[in-house]
Design brief:
It is a single chain. The chain has about 160 residues and is of the alpha+beta class. It has a single domain, classed as 6-pyruvoyl tetrahydropterin synthase/QueD (Tetrahydropterin Synthase, Chain A, 2-Layer Sandwich). The chain contains 2 helices and 10 strands; from the N terminus they run βββαβββββαββ. Strands 1, 2, 3, 4, 8, 9 and 10 form a 7-stranded mixed β-sheet that branches. Strands 5-6-7 form a 3-stranded antiparallel β-sheet, with no helix packed on it. A hairpin with a 5-residue loop joins strand 6 and strand 7. It is elongated, with a radius of gyration of 17 Å.
Amino acid sequence: MSMKLTHDKFRFHVTTIELDGETITVGGNNYNTTLKMTYNQGANIKKINSMIIDFLLQICEDLHHRVIVPAKSLLLSFSKNGGQLDMDRVGTSLHYSFPERAVMMCPVKNTGIDDLCSYVAESLSDKIKEKTNFQAQIDKIKVKVSQNIGPKVATVKLRLN
């Protein structure tokens, strides 16, 4: 059985740091997230959905109104200085500095929609595996992240078993 889960708070508004060749683009985007769950037979769907909704709301809240920095990028170097996160584009004179409290070091190589969708899907999968015993009851999750403006959409499917 499959079910699509939506919620008006499955969204986040972020500042992204995108890398394109020699340049860094700092931009703001609004994203919506939807989730499709496929359950195994005998799953306690009501209880699972309640927890999954809470997990996805927390992930979106953690991202919301943050500067999302691609922590796994080999093109950036980072240092902390007096409550600031300094970021330099390796091999160039490009330098940015953000208040640490405004930054989320996201474990991705870039902060495009595909990377953010993968981050959301993997974070949700990790929470399911770490905090519940529902993994055996869920066959797959499909996370879709879409930009509010423009046709950009990314989808990630993960099998939990």
